Task: inverse folding
DNA sequence: CTGAAAGCGCTAACAC
DNA sequence: GTGTTAGCGCTTTCAG
């Protein structure tokens, strides 16, 4: 597996580099069977591996996709990254995964880094939807490379987007609780993110439909971190709520940790609907009823769109921005009890 | 941010490509201040970004490191990947993270993929230490690219390695339990991995030192998955053990899930020492005493070694295989009670 | 101080 | 059937 080039093979077989290149890429061409066989044989024997760098330089594409995510340690993003990586590989693309550490400046550095390295396309989960980095927006708006924003967005930047319908998620969760007889339903949401706000909207809609008022003391704010949710849950247990919509994985985890600490049980003392059941599901007894966001579906949609853009941009002209919205669904487990 | 090359700038300034290249890379050279300023100015105005592909082709290096891990969804590996990515970026390297999905064939495919793409170095966590892929071993043994194996190893392949001392981890965990007055100490380990076997050795050594016999019914096998540990824990609660050494994060999680399901409490009913406290720590009440493997330390050691090799291999000759072993340490929390 | 020229390894017209 | 040639965008001797 040492370094052997087309030229080496050409010299050995006594043919030109062109022929060797043609055969090794098995292009439609008229190289005699004998030569072809010889080339293949020598190539295998010497362990030839094409130099992708050189190839990329002339082909003007790298067969590489770049991914920017805020935090690879989050289960949702880890799972997203894994899925995307797998699907890219199936399509013959490599994936460069980068981690912005929840920093908007890094977002913009990483975009540049990835583009310099000649990725053919970019998948971006921005680290902050509100604290927008000016540089990022201006870079993005005149990027030569196709990109699609996933899951989170920058306000007012027209571009391709793929996301889940968070409002629907919040609605489904809350309606389920109502259908099981609950009326005093709290929710823990992240008001500093669009996803959180939308989930809250859904919560409010479901309550509204049944003529139940949204009570301020039932709406608890929390970041998407366990510790933060743990704090929020302290306020929860001072209310008379019988059910709670925990609007993310980590939020559910923080909530449950708090409940356990107070010897409160689910669903005996509180009925809980979670979001993104990935983690909580395997961790907890009982398993949590939750709103599921199908990650493979998300990554598939994002890649489909991105690859379409890449094809379009190679072909010549590309269409206007697209937005695809995926519906989450309610997955019934054992954390909600019927109230009579 | 459209595509602008050295030539474009050269033409605009009325100088040669050479001069432009020289000043843009600010090499020690004698280009007049005036020219230099003009070049810089035009470059910025046109938004020049060097084409890394072309650069790599001539420089014969890509400033890119490849990482192969078995499963990015595991917290330990996610954290490792995040750390390595950060440190690479600080050193001006990009990181290509790939996921082998616990498949040895993928290991070998990924090695080839990354090498073809011209990574300057490779960090590998093999997916299976025993089911060795022949192809992988032969590729690795004559790889032109420096690489270091991290955390797990292939038997009989002389190469650079960085790992934690698992035997010590098992020893520290068990000794702590003994010091707190426990004698009926069970352990849940993964016998299908070297890490598991070594941790078991440490467990046995600690017991042996105190003249406590290793009881077969106390040694429970489990994969590194929550579900598997959950099953193993079912057997645990049929013994009369008062303490248990849960030899991984997921194992601890499966164990705790089982204990909760049976309304058993920690440390009231069982004292528990876990491993890799990352997850369990934030999730559970009480926090778990555990053996900590310092991931930043691991990634630092791995990268130090790798970068040294890269330097050596560029310089000319590189030394023989190195092995660096890091010590884990016991972190006291609240999951162990003193037995009197 | 500055530029011409060669070449990294590969692909692709276009000859022969 | 097969070879020649000309780049891809950049760095780097080596001459002026």
Result:
């Amino acid at each position: 597996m040492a370094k052997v080039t087309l030229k080496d093979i050409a010299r050995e077989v006594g043919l030109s580099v062109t022929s060797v290149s043609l055969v090794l890429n098995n292009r439609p061409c008229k190289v005699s069977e004998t030569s072809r066989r010889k080339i293949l044989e020598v190539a295998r024997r010497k362990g030839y591996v094409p130099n992708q760098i050189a190839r990329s330089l002339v082909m003007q594409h790298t067969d590489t996709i770049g991914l920017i995510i805020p935090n690879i340690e989050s289960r949702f993003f880890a799972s997203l990254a894994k899925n995307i990586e797998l699907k890219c590989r199936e399509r013959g693309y490599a994936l460069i995964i980068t981690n912005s550490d929840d920093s908007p400046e890094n977002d913009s550095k990483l975009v540049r880094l990835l583009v310099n390295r000649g990725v053919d396309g970019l998948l971006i989960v921005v680290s902050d939807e509100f604290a927008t980095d000016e540089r990022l927006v201006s870079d993005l708006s005149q990027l030569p490379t196709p990109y699609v924003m996933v899951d989170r967005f920058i306000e007012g930047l027209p571009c391709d987007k793929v996301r889940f319908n968070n409002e629907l998620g919040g609605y489904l969760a809350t309606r389920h609780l109502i259908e099981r007889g609950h009326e005093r339903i709290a929710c823990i949401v992240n008001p500093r993110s669009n996803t959180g706000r939308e989930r809250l909207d859904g919560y409010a809609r479901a309550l509204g439909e049944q003529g139940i008022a949204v009570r301020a003391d039932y709406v608890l704010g929390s970041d998407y971190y366990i510790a933060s949710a743990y704090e929020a849950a302290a306020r929860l247990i001072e209310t008379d709520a019988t059910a709670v919509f925990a609007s993310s994985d980590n939020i559910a985890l923080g909530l449950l940790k708090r409940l356990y600490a107070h010897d409160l049980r689910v669903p005996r003392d509180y009925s809980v609907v979670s979001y993104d059941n990935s983690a909580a599901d395997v961790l907890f007894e009982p398993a949590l009823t939750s709103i599921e966001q199908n990650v493979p579906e998300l990554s598939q949609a994002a890649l489909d769109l991105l690859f379409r853009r890449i094809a379009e941009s190679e072909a010549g002209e590309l269409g206007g921005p697209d937005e695809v919205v995926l519906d989450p669904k309610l997955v019934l487990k054992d954390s909600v009890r019927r109230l009579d």
About this structure: Chain B has three domains: 6-59, 64-164+296-327, 166-293. Residues 5-7, 17-18, 21-22, 25, 27, 50-51, 53-59 of chain B lie near DNA strand D (CB under 10 Å from a C1').
